[in-house]
Design brief:
Length: 165
């Protein structure tokens, strides 16, 4: 385990500067926690225990409260993910429109269990709570971009493109 200080050393100065700006702008330092976590995850790929402690120190929050936030919000990754990330919505509307079969198909195509990293770190596939695209179910979040009407053909094409990069 490294120390939270070494986390700061691993961050580009631009990220440290942006974190400091969010902390200054927040009415209370704790109010900046979501921005701090987002910036740390963008810079480091995920929020490991040391990064979580760093975020807690920066905001003055108890580490257990930061852990609660990380476990509540599905966009916070607590372990490494692939370079590309596919999140398939599994909420009610998407479930009824076939999201479960898409998730099973994704596992079959990739050969990797959901949440694990596929083929040399190229991508990860995760179930995700509601993306707010119920009218266009099933929905997915592809590298942070929402896609409605995500079907088996789109899944096959996407995974094929990621495997050939």
């Amino acid at each position: 385990m490294s120390s939270p200080t070494s986390i700061a050393d691993r961050l580009p100065s631009s990220v440290r500067t942006e974190i400091e700006a969010h902390l200054r702008q927040a009415p209370q330092r704790e109010a900046a926690i979501s921005d701090v976590l987002r910036l740390l995850q963008q810079a480091l790929g995920y929020i490991d225990d040391d990064t979580l402690l760093y975020a807690a120190q920066q905001t003055g929050m108890p580490p257990v409260k930061v852990e609660e936030l990380c476990s509540f919000y599905p966009l916070v990754l607590r372990r490494p993910a692939g370079r590309h990330l596919l999140r398939i919505c599994d909420s009610v509307s998407c479930h009824l429109a076939g999201a479960d079969s898409l998730l099973r198909q994704a596992e079959e195509i990739s050969g990797v269990t959901l949440g694990q990293v596929a083929k040399e770190g190229s991508y990860s596939i995760l179930p995700h709570v509601c993306l707010g695209l119920c009218d266009r179910a099933p929905a997915a979040l592809v590298d942070g971009h929402a896609v409605g009407g995500f079907d088996g053909d789109a899944l096959v094409a996407l995974l094929a493109s990621w495997e050939h990069r």
